[in-house]
Amino acid sequence: MPPAGPRAALLPPLLLLLLRTALAVPLERGVPKKEDGPATESPVSGPALLSSQDTGLYYHRYLQEVINVLETDGHFREKLQAANAEDIKSGKLSRELDFVSHNVRTKLDELKRQEVSRLRMLLKVKMDAEQQEPNVQVDHLSLLKQFEHLDPQNQHTFEARDLELLIQTATRDLAQYDEAHHEEFKRYEMLKEHERRRYLESLGEEQRKEAERKLEEQQRRHREHPKVNVPGSQAQLKEVWEELDGLDPNRFNPKTFFILHDINSDGVLDEQELEALFTKELEKVYDPKNEEDDMREMEEERLRMREHVMKNVDTNQDRLVTLEEFLASTQRKEFGDTGEGWETVETHPAYTEEELRRFEEELAAREAELNAKAQRLSQETEALGRSQGHLEAQKRELQQAVLHMEQRKQQQQQQEQAAHNAPGPEGQLNFHPDTGAGSKDDTPVPVPADDQKGVDASEKKLPEPPQLDTQNL
């Protein structure tokens, strides 16, 4: 299911085909016939437009590039103009790939190889994450579905089967867009209500009463808005005709209105062109400057309005309104029936109390899981802290030991240096420990010649110093 997000508008003809499998739309719209001469480009159209829009599909870039390449082939464009819905469903259009130019086929092959490489990398990253983190759960079924838009059995060439799969997958995924958007909005509303209730429960009685009074006042102001016309009704279209188009409401003409709001002049009103018609009605209810107006609800309102028009005007359900469908809708009784107006989203809660209860249970379970994980992480952090403290203590002990050894070494060197430099008693030699010789002034002491033979100077007995006469002193 594609994520909720921006969708492509005013798409080129081939993309319109790729996004629908059972359609009955005139395929020649927006594509000039040979006798028509060159087409007049709308301000944004063709590949440039497709590059600036996003379908919201995870394979959007691949889809975009395939379409752009196919539209460069004259033969394929010619077959496209003559194609119908049955040709698309039966795969007849896809088989025309056999007749496109070699250059186009080469580019398509390269695009497919790049897409397969991208998907392989995606799978590898997720598999690596599963191996490195045993607690990480990988949805293998979801991974395999990444290949539904191409033929994984043939990973090197783009064949007719690939185009068929691209058509089917894009059509299905885009058809589920609105459903996904509604589901996302429901969860948003439930979360908002859940947080509101928790906030009120956290307050004291007097504070809670004041907060409830303020919330009720905001809701009251939000409900006090002008009447909202039913989307697609005469009253709603006339209001656009008068206030936005600046035309006389008494001269309202449905055909002229259609032409004015067919922005790209392709002969149909697409979803975005229709949604633009509802802006005036939405401004009656939602103002971004008002605290009580939720802009997320406004977008849900816009989607509901568009779905209402598509349901009642788009008779063939191809998500496009042709001029014939539009004119036919203006002839129905409902077109001029004003009634009580459009019921906005606050009158149709997006969820039930039972759904809210299950949602809150889901939140509580998730919160408990996160708390347990946080506790485990805290315990691991404490253990790492203790281990770090132990390592730091060992490091300090080692540093002290090294410092002590350095001090002892320095003391020993100082003692040796002092012993070397200090003068001994007069007449006593100071011997260098490295040479074993020396004297008071480091000059050699003459040795008698007769005592030099076989006698070590260090072993010779020095004359004793004269004895002092202590009695005479």
**End-to-end gap:** 122 Å
Mean pLDDT: 77
Structural class: mainly alpha
Q: Give the topology string: H per helix, E per strand.
A: HHHHHHHHHHHHHEHHHEHHH
The amount of helix comes to 55-70%
Residue windows where pLDDT falls under 50 for at least 5 positions? 1-14, 19-53, 434-441, 451-455
Report the radius of gyration as a whole number of Å.
45 Å
Would you write up a description of this structure?
- The protein is mainly α and 473 residues long.
- Helices cover 57% and strands 1% of the residues.
- The protein contains 19 helices and two strands.
- The chain has helices at residues 13-18, 46-52, 60-70, 74-82, 85-90, 92-95, 102-132, 140-144, 160-175, 177-201, 205-223, 234-244, 254-261, 271-276, 279-285, 295-313, 323-329, 333-336, 353-421; strands spanning 268-269, 321-322.
- It has a two-stranded antiparallel ribbon.
- Helix 10 crosses helix 19.
- The longest helix is centred in the last third of the chain and has 69 residues, at 353-421.
- The termini are far apart.
- Mean pLDDT is 77; it is low at 1-14, 19-53, 434-441 and 451-455.
Entry summary:
The protein has 473 residues and is an all-alpha fold. It has helices at 13-18, 46-52, 60-70, 74-82, 85-90, 92-95, 102-132, 140-144, 160-175, 177-201, 205-223, 234-244, 254-261, 271-276, 279-285, 295-313, 323-329, 333-336, 353-421, and strands spanning 268-269, 321-322.
Write the layout of secondary structure elements.
Blueprint: H1 13-18, H2 46-52, H3 60-70, H4 74-82, H5 85-90, H6 92-95, H7 102-132, H8 140-144, H9 160-175, H10 177-201, H11 205-223, H12 234-244, H13 254-261, E1 268-269, H14 271-276, H15 279-285, H16 295-313, E2 321-322, H17 323-329, H18 333-336, H19 353-421
Antiparallel strand pairs: 1-2
Helix pairs in contact: 3-7, 10-16, 10-19
